[in-house]
């Protein structure tokens, strides 16, 4: 995804707070390789969190994020009190580029390329919790959610055509197709997912289902690719880079 942004192949990113969390944390500290079948009770006792087969020690996640982020929020607060969330992510991207491993950051390359990052669930993660923590002592510090939605609305409505690469599903996928329904749907849509269709989840819903909602045009070029995104994305985008 960093390569796509760096090669000017993306205009907008819609993602989760978790993307911000782990992007920042992995620049500041180390994650480790584990196993899906590890003893989770033992891991908790040792202060290690598990993401599938990736191990994230407490000292590599919430703690470094808090130490890094709180002073930056003080700086942003001194600039102004009211922020659209994408503006904060942009500022964090510029800051993370100053770190030793900043060039590895997805948020950093988005800031460098001036690509707006929209996070429709901005408090659903470690970064969002730090914003809430900061707000506890700065009650006039506010996030302008509606202002951000207006930004995304303008981008969608001013586009001659729209296309989306949707990795998985959830809030990121839905927010993307939701706004596109107001222009009669996406013109191009690709989804990569491992979720089954029969469980009724948005991650499992095939792109064709969105046609019934007007979120993808009936004549759109569209496809759902079933499989592991870490395997499929290099195969899909490799020839384009």
CATH class of the largest domain: Alpha Beta
- CATH superfamily name of the largest domain? Deoxyhypusine synthase
> Which secondary-structure class do the elements indicate?
alpha/beta
Largest sheet, in brief, is: 3 strands, antiparallel
Mean pLDDT: 96
> Which stretches of 5+ consecutive residues score pLDDT under 50?
none
Radius of gyration: 19 Å
How helix-rich are the residues, as a percent range? 40-55%
Give the CA-based shape. Answer: globular
Strand content: 15-25%
Number of strands: 10
Measured between the Cα atoms of the first and last residue, the distance is 11 Å
CATH-derived architecture of the largest domain: 3-Layer(aba) Sandwich
Number of domains: 2
Q: Output the number of helix runs.
A: 11
In short:
With 241 residues, the chain is of the alpha/beta class. 46% of the residues lie in helices and 18% in strands. The protein has two domains: 2-148, Deoxyhypusine Synthase (3-Layer(aba) Sandwich), CATH 3.40.910.10; 162-240.
Protein described:
This is Probable deoxyhypusine synthase. Pathway: Protein modification. Belongs to the deoxyhypusine synthase family. Keywords: NAD, Transferase. GO terms for molecular function: deoxyhypusine synthase activity. The structure is a single chain. The protein has 241 residues and is an alpha/beta fold. It folds into two domains: 2-148, Deoxyhypusine Synthase, CATH 3.40.910; 162-240. It contains eleven helices and ten strands. It has a three-stranded antiparallel sheet with strand order 2-4-3. A three-stranded parallel sheet has the order 8-9-10, with helices on both faces. β8 (163-167), α9 and β9 (186-193) form a beta-alpha-beta unit. α4 (62-79) crosses α7 (126-136) and α5 packs across α6 (106-112). The longest helix is centred in the first third of the chain and has 18 residues, at 62-79. The chain is globular, with a radius of gyration of 19 Å. It starts with a helix and ends with a helix.
């Amino acid at each position: 995804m960093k390569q796509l942004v760096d090669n000017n192949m993306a205009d907008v990113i819609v993602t989760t707070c978790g993307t911000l969390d782990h992007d920042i944390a992995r620049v500041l500290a180390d994650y480790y390789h584990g196993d899906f079948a590890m003893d989770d009770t033992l891991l908790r006792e040792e202060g290690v969190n598990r993401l599938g087969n990736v191990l994230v020690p407490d000292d590599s996640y919430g703690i470094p994020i808090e130490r890094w982020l709180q002073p930056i929020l003080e700086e942003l607060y001194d600039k102004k009190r009211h922020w659209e969330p994408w503006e904060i992510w942009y500022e964090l991207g510029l800051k993370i580029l100053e770190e030793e491993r900043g060039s590895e950051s997805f948020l950093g390359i988005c800031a460098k390329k001036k690509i707006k990052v929209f996070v429709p669930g901005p408090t659903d993660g470690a970064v969002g919790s730090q914003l809430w923590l900061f707000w506890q002592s700065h009650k006039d510090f506010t996030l302008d959610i509606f202002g951000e939605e207006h930004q995304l609305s303008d981008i969608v409505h001013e586009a001659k055509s729209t296309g989306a690469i949707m990795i998985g599903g959830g809030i990121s996928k839905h927010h993307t197709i939701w706004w596109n329904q107001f222009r009669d749907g996406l013109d191009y849509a690709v989804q990569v997912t491992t979720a089954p269709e029969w469980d009724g989840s948005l991650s499992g819903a095939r792109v064709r289902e969105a046609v019934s909602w007007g979120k993808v045009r009936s004549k759109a070029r569209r496809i759902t690719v079933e499989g592991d995104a870490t395997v499929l994305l290099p195969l899909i985008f490799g020839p384009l880079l």
